[in-house]
Amino acid sequence: MPPPPVANPALDLQLLMQDEHVMVAAKLAGMPTQPGMGHQRDTLMNALFAHDGRSLERLGHDRDWGLLHRLDRETSGCVIVARTAAAYDGIRRQFERRTIDKSYLAVVQGRLPHKDGTCRQPLAETLRGGTKVSVIATAGEPAITHWTTLAAKGEHAVLSISIETGRLHQIRAHLAWLGAPVLGDRVYRSLLPPNTSALRDKAVTLFLHAHSIAFDHPVTGERARVTMPVPERFRERADELVGSGWLERTPPASRP
């Protein structure tokens, strides 16, 4: 059985919500969610173990040290971590029942088929060049992504996105399939047809942000809604591409 993450107090940690049962942490873009190859001490979980390693270690590997879901390394946003077994099990059931509301913001380059819509293309995991990716596949797992355009100009748009499922790279794969990949997405941009306008994208940062998350508190039962402010580099780039004002139209996390 693998050892627990190593506590690293040198890492910055911002908690958006915290009580004796659950924490919601703000994951920065570029920070892995949990330790893996080449990243053993610089992840969100390393920072959380420095904050409350005793509680997380008690949960053990079987409960993933309290971690209830993950974000891609280059995606910023809200991450829920349980501090007790009861909280972990209760929130895990909500994920399984799809009652967790997750709202994302994305800057995309390309042309979506409609201003608002839903992509229901099933996804299957595969390896491309040594990297695990999700591809559209008839026999894949169900995947549902809803999008609403907050602002658009030329071939760029800022979207509000909610997902009913949590497949690997789901938002990135669906948006690329629709012809409007997330700005800065090197992986899924490479899967686009030749001569697609998005291939001219030179961004080096992935413009995808897990803006808010809502769940039923595992002890009180009250609905908890937590939001992580939009990172400055995201806001500035979006303003530059589509104009200001889109942020005021951002809806809270809500069930589709």
Q: Provide the low-confidence segments as ranges.
A: none
The number of domains is 2
Number of β-strand runs? 11
Would you give the CATH topology of the largest domain?
Answer: Pseudouridine synthase
- The CATH homologous superfamily name of the largest domain equals Pseudouridine synthase
Q: What shape does the CA trace take?
A: globular
Q: Determine the oligomeric state from the structure.
A: single chain
H/I helix tally? 5
- Rg estimate, integer Å: 18 Å
Helical percentage: 10-25%
* Average pLDDT score: 92
Can you describe what's shown?
- With 256 residues, the protein is α+β, with helices and mostly antiparallel strands.
- The protein folds into 2 domains: 83 residues, Pseudouridine synthase (2-Layer Sandwich), CATH 3.30.2350; 97 residues, Pseudouridine synthase.
- The longest helix has 16 residues.
- The chain is globular and about 50 Å long.
Give the SSE map.
Elements: E1 15-18, E2 22-27, H1 44-59, E3 76-82, H2 85-97, E4 101-109, E5 116-119, E6 123-128, E7 131-136, E8 145-153, E9 156-163, H3 170-178, H4 186-189, E10 208-216, E11 223-227, H5 232-242
Parallel strand pairs: 3-10
Antiparallel strand pairs: 1-2, 2-3, 4-9, 4-10, 5-8, 6-7, 8-9, 10-11
Spell out the key features of this protein.
alpha+beta, Pseudouridine synthase, 2 domains, two-stranded antiparallel ribbon, 21% helix
Short overview:
With 256 residues, this protein is an alpha+beta fold. 21% of the residues lie in helices and 29% in strands. The relative contact order is 0.17.
